[in-house]
Every structure is written in structure tokens, then in C-alpha cells.
Write a structure and sequence with these properties.
The chain is α/β, with parallel strands linked by helices and 386 residues long. Helices cover 30% and strands 19% of the residues. Strands 1-16-15-14-10-11-13-12 form an eight-stranded mixed beta sheet, sandwiched between helices. Strands 2-9-8-3 form a four-stranded mixed beta sheet, with helices on one face. Strands 5-4-6-7 form a four-stranded parallel beta sheet. β12 and β13 form a beta hairpin. It is globular, with a radius of gyration of 21 Å.
Length: 386
């Protein structure tokens, strides 16, 4: 079975690399595969940054902005910590702000050590986090999603934001760091009372589909609950089984809200609105397929691991306007369905907002028929590359 996308829509498998000549990219400046780990690069390091980091005894990870931007920028934190380990600089690492619990799941956080120097610290985060926590820092590093370009080296481009952040800091720090693609750290997952309750009442069955309805831009990115239900019905009918559809919404303003719709022939629908991100990180690995718009919870779903066979379920992101490659995790199970406009943003390393590019047509989420998405989902569920 081969998925056929509608006209003007393309499927991009998460495991396929992008050749250097296919996109607008900036040469990294060295053949990364030929430089051993820990060896100085053939580029000058930022001497002041290196000097200040070497004197720090603590690294504070501080993100206050959007969840998606935060998750995709954690590879930059990883780069700094990898460099400190290679230089044998002993530091304590702690996270602050609303995402501290999620960041702790990446394994980046270490307990304070009694022998590290005191009083000198580095703050790494987004602009709001650095402004809130970096006033007395020895060095502050702002990880801005608009800053790092799409790097190219070894015959391939690295368009995803985790790769951009990691490689940008490798260049600045001047040493070949150990990580290779995919550069995004993953979140360790477990269980919690809410997930166990959903399991106990039969909501985590043999065919669980999660769909992200939460979005900060509903007029452009809301696929709608009804389209997701139709998609799930197509999958359930093709599988001749009952599907459980978990519709993951944003905070309704009064905390967690769980509501079930009347049972349908092939699909049971449960609305989960305002579920905390750390709970969702535990829930997503129990799903068999996840579909969502270009938003933080979709990135979270791709980075949450520890489910079946220790890996993550296939995640499909829907991209109508923004680059499908830049705004993904780079993980092999994180796929994209994208319009021609999104594909042009990918090819030219452009942003429709930053570069003031208006779409040729205002189809938005109408570009993705549920039946076509269902066929792609079925092939991913069957382990077939669409």
C-alpha cells in the first residue's frame, strides 16, 4: 500500500536526510565526520565565551517562553554540557521556570557537587529566561530560534532546530562535540495516577490515537476535532477494530477537564483539555499514532520516549505555512505532511512571518483531507514507509 497525498501536499518521512544541494544552507566550515571527538575545530573558538564558561561552577537552564521553542532548544544546552565534560570542567546543573520538570527528564540536570567553584554561573535559555535569571551571571547564552542557520556538512543539510542549535554552539566553542544526528535529547517517561486511571477504565487499548487540538494560532493551525474524528474513523474501519481517540486540547482556563463523547461505531472519543505537559509526556508513549499541528505538544509527543519497545510512536506534524523541517525534532519517528508553501519555506530556509511572505492561497488546514492522512497513518502503523 502506498499513500497518495492530495495535490499540493507532500509527506516527509522523519528518517530521510536532506542533501546539501536541495536547500538553502550555510556551510558548517569543516567536514564533521573527519574531525575526532574532542579535537579542536579548524575554526577559531569564541575565546571570551570559552574563558567565561571554564570559570563557572553552575549552569542554570532558564526557559520562560513557548513550550515548543524550549524543547527544540534543549540541544543547545546539551552542546554546552557536552563541551564542559570534554574540558573536564565540573559544574552543577539546575533548571528553573515552568519547564524545569520536563527538562529534568532529559538527563541534562545534575546534582550540585561540593568541589565546584562557587559564585560563578552560566545561564542558558530563551530571552525571557535569561533576562529573569541572568542579571548576575558570568555568561548568558540566549537560544533564539531565529538565529542559527540551516547548516550543511558531509553532503547533508541539518535543517531541524535541534541540529541548528547544537552545531552553532559547537562552532563557537571550537571543539568537535560527541553528539550526532538526531541532536534532540529525549524525555524519559514513566507513569502517573492519571495515566493509570485512563488505563484502568479501558481508555488505553489496542489502537490508541492521540490528536493535538491545542494551538496558539487557531485561525491558521486548528485542524479541528471533527477532522481528527473522521481521520480516526477511517483508520478504525480499515483496521476493523475499535479506536480510542484522545483529543489533546489546551488549558480551558479552569484546569484539567476530561469529557467523553457518546460512543461511535468504530471510535471512542475522549477530550483531555488542560492536561499538564509532564502528564502528557507519560501518556504519549502509550499511543500508537499521534497527529498534531505545528505546536509544542506535538514536539513533546515526539520527544517523549519509553513506551512500547523503549521507543516512541510515529508522530505526524501538519505544516501549512512554516518550514516542516526546521520546526521538527529531527527524530526519525517524527514525520511531516506539508503543503507546497511549507516545502518552499523549507527549501529557502524562510519564515512566512519573519520574511512577510503571504500564502498563494489561504487553505491552511483544509489542505489535509482526513482520508489521505488516515492512509499515511495506516502505513506508519504497519511499519511501511509511505
Amino acid at each position: 500500500m502506498t499513500a497518495v497525498a492530495p495535490a499540493g501536499v507532500r509527506f516527509h518521512h522523519g528518517s530521510r536526510s536532506t542533501p546539501t544541494e536541495a536547500v538553502h544552507a550555510t556551510p558548517l566550515g569543516y567536514d564533521r565526520d573527519s574531525v575526532p571527538i574532542g579535537v579542536p575545530l579548524p575554526l577559531a573558538a569564541s575565546a571570551e565565551l570559552v574563558h567565561r564558561l571554564c570559570g563557572c561552577g553552575e549552569v542554570v537552564v532558564a526557559f520562560e517562553g513557548k513550550l515548543g521553542d524550549t524543547l527544540l532548544a534543549l540541544s543547545g544546552v546539551r552542546a554546552v554540557l557536552d563541551w564542559l565534560r570534554l574540558r573536564s570542567v565540573r559544574v552543577a546543573v539546575r533548571a528553573v521556570g515552568p519547564y524545569a520538570g520536563l527538562i529534568a527528564r532529559t538527563g541534562l540536570i545534575t546534582q550540585p557537587q561540593a568541589t565546584v567553584p562557587s559564585g560563578r554561573r552560566a545561564v542558558i535559555g530563551d530571552r525571557a529566561g535569561v533576562e529573569a535569571h541572568g542579571s548576575t551571571a558570568t555568561v548568558s547564552l540566549v537560544l533564539d530560534p531565529a538565529a542559527p542557520p540551516c547548516w550543511s556538512t558531509d553532503g547533508r543539510a541539518h535543517p531541524d532546530l535541534p541540529a541548528r542549535h547544537y552545531l552553532a554552539l559547537e562552532r563557537r566553542l571550537g571543539i568537535r562535540l560527541p553528539a550526532t544526528a538526531p541532536f534532540a535529547p529525549v524525555l524519559a517517561t514513566g507513569s502517573n495516577n492519571l495515566v493509570e486511571e485512563l488505563r484502568s477504565v479501558g481508555w488505553l487499548g489496542s489502537l490508541n490515537i492521540a490528536a493535538i487540538t491545542a494551538t496558539s494560532w487557531p485561525e491558521r493551525k486548528d485542524y479541528t476535532a471533527q477532522r481528527y474524528i473522521t481521520l480516526a474513523e477511517h483508520i478504525a474501519e480499515a483496521r476493523q477494530s475499535q479506536a480510542r481517540l484522545l483529543l489533546i486540547g489546551g488549558d480551558p482556563g479552569d484546569g484539567l477537564r476530561i469529557t467523553a463523547e457518546a460512543p461511535r461505531r468504530h471510535v471512542q472519543v475522549l477530550h483531555l483539555d488542560g492536561m499538564p505537559a509532564d502528564h502528557l509526556a507519560d501518556l504519549f508513549p502509550h499511543c500508537h499514532l499521534i497527529v498534531g499541528n505545528d505546536t509544542g505538544l506535538t514536539h513533546l509527543a515526539a520527544m517523549a520516549r519509553g513506551g512500547r519497545d523503549g521507543g516512541g510512536p510515529p508522530v505526524i506534524g501538519l505544516y501549512a505555512r512554516h518550514s516542516h523541517s526546521k520546526w521538527r525534532t529531527g527524530l526519525p519517528h517524527h514525520h511531516a505532511v506539508a503543503t507546497d508553501l511549507s516545502d518552499r519555506m523549507h527549501q529557502g530556509d524562510l519564515c512566512p512571518v519573519r520574511d512577510a511572505i503571504t500564502p498563494d492561497t489561504d487553505v491552511h488546514m483544509d489542505a489535509f483531507p482526513p482520508a489521505a492522512l488516515a492512509q499515511i497513518g495506516l502505513e506508519l502503523l504497519d511499519g511501511v514507509s509511505p
